[in-house]
Amino acid sequence: xxxxxxxxxxxxxxxxxxxxxxxxxxxxxxxxxxxxxxxxxxxxxxxxxxxxxxxxxxxxxxxxxxxxxxxxxxxxxxxxxxxxxxxxxxxxxxxxxxxxxxxxxxxxxxxxxxxxxxxxxxxxxxxxxxxxxxxxxxxxxxxxxxxxxxxxxxxxxxxxxxxxxxxxxxxxxxxxxxxxxxxxxxxxxxxxxxxxxxxxxxxxxxxxxxxxxxxxxxxxxxxxxxxxxxxxxxxxxxxxxxxxxxxxxxxxxx
Amino acid sequence: xxxxxxxxxxxxxxxxxxxxxxxxxxxxxxxxxxxxxxxxxxxxxxxxxxxxxxxxxxxxxxxxxxxxxxxxxxxxxxxxxxxxxxxxxxxxxxxxxxxxxxxxxxxxxxxxxxxxxxxxxxxxxxxxxxxxxxxxxxxxxxxxxxxxxxxxxxxxxxxxxxxxxxxxxxxxxxxxxxxxxxxxxxxxxxxxxxxxxxxxxxxxxxxxxxxxxxxxxxxxxxxxxxxxxxxxxxxxxxxxxxxxx
Lengths: 254, 245
Fold this sequence. Notes:
10 helices; 7% strand; homodimer; globular
């Protein structure tokens, strides 16, 4: 069991995958050093420790890197066994892993598409988000998570962390894009879960204040709109915008 | 602490590499199972019931409960039947294994699929992408996390061998059908040697279909894709190229 001071996290302040790792470390009561990374200008450390994807988050434990947020979460859980975030039962673990995959594979890209599109394309993206939320709502109401306070049971677990750190973008995009994503009337159980999750102390200490997120999202949206209207779309600016969108929305960081 | 193996049923498709992953893992664990062949164009009611989100193979049914997504299934198998482990015991090694599984399904497999479904300049770019990805694996085998090992899992086949190996035979198939070079033994000597060794294992030979069947299958789909791209309908291309869970 290594000294926790050997932990260092390379992350970005607005990145939901970084928040996942920060939250898990906090739930485990682990001290760690944090290094802020700029998505457009990755540090030498980031390039060294994540040569394949060159993205945050990267967890360094005694200088050995672990990358990909869901991989990092399981690593944390398996290395520090107190306050487990994965269930003990193999079937429940499979269910948790499946819905993590779903969150990354279907839900997050759909949410990202809402943000980066407009007109008919955006309407389609919103419908896609709703279809995905319906699947989760059904599992919460009648399926694998029926009767549970959190996806992890009485306490926050891995799937809560994965879904929860990212779901605040739903509220941000609702405001910035003026679309309705999580209507409490349509998704009552999911909505209740999200509000409960966001009230947890460790979560409040992890997720940035909504006004910072709103400002960030508005800035990116402005940039996207002006780039699509303007003539000068220099490659770095476009790339920077794309990186910022990807970091924010997180179809693409680890 | 084992469940009765006769309660295991696999919904799969014979040419599907994700199905092969599960078949191989069950075989390595010495588990009996019932197998049901699925037609991805016409999924059975059972498949729709047990995988309502993705409606794809493979789906593992155990004691009436369903587990889907091949890498999720592999870990479920390993955690339920603990003899002959396919995951390493050490958390860091487990993280390394999981990372390269993610890389395989996130980067390598789509690039290989693109080689098959593209042509001309697009195909050349896809081939380059496959080479870039293989270089990363070659480096890990030669100098990195897997240096000096016979298999990714060590002395015996492990989860990452299963994930990479069940799918890598398509490289040889596509090389032949598409007339492209994907795994040049000179450029990727360690990966090439690993793949040959993997394919010689008894359980692997019993799992992966004979190469002539795979060649026939791939040629058939390629023909269909080429004739469809000359006409208007593209739904069959999407079905044929549909990647499974």
